[in-house]
Amino acid sequence: MPETQIKELVILSEDVLTKIQSPLEDFLNYYTVPQLVSSNNQKDLEHTKYILSDMRHLLVSCENTLNKLGVVSRSKQFNKDFAEHVLYETVHLCVNKFYYPDHELYEEDGRNAYTGKDAITFTYDHHTKIKETILSLSKYFEVLREELNYYETDYITKKRLEGKTY
Question: For 133-146, what is each residue's pLDDT tens digit?
């Protein structure tokens, strides 16, 4: 992939991750488990802890990747290999972590995308604020996934030709 396209993807990814980081961080800083669980139901408590854990891991991954993208975009000398690796990490550490959370308390239903519904469906009835936050973030992650989909395939093919496995 040409260097100019990689630079554009770095800038786009940095911009989108910035838009993701702020509302996710605000949500995690503002809400606590007792605020999000209205009953004494142990299952509600457990599922809320799990989804907040997934969201914290996602935030850390996005922040770390955002920092690396910043290093790439601010460097005087553009390092194409490092930029490619960071874009690959953006897909695997951010986009995939969002769409495939560890505790699987929500999932993507691709059929919903064609009907105008939200593609994210919840496997448990979470607090409204949790649902709103995840659904609002999904729009940004969709942009990242669409923009980096071709790049990821190209990067993996290139690495395989070099004899490396990913």
Answer: 999 999 999 999 99
Q: Where are the beta strands (DSSP E) in the chain?
A: 106-108, 120-122
* Residue that is written with structure tokens 């999904």 in the block: 138
Q: At what angle do helices 128-161 and 80-89 cross, to 10 degrees?
A: 140
Backbone angles phi and psi of 59, in degrees to 5: -60, -45
Q: What per-residue string of b and e applies to 6-37 under the rule 16 or more CB within 10 Å gives b?
A: beebbebbbebbeebbeebeebeeebeeeebb
Q: How far apart are the first and last CA of the chain?
A: 18
List, in order, residues 6 or more apart from 104 with CB less than 8 Å away. 123
Which positions of the chain have pLDDT values less than 50?
none
| CA nearest neighbour of 72 among 55, 61, 88, 59 | 88
Q: CA angle at residue 101 from 86 to 70, to 5 degrees?
A: 25
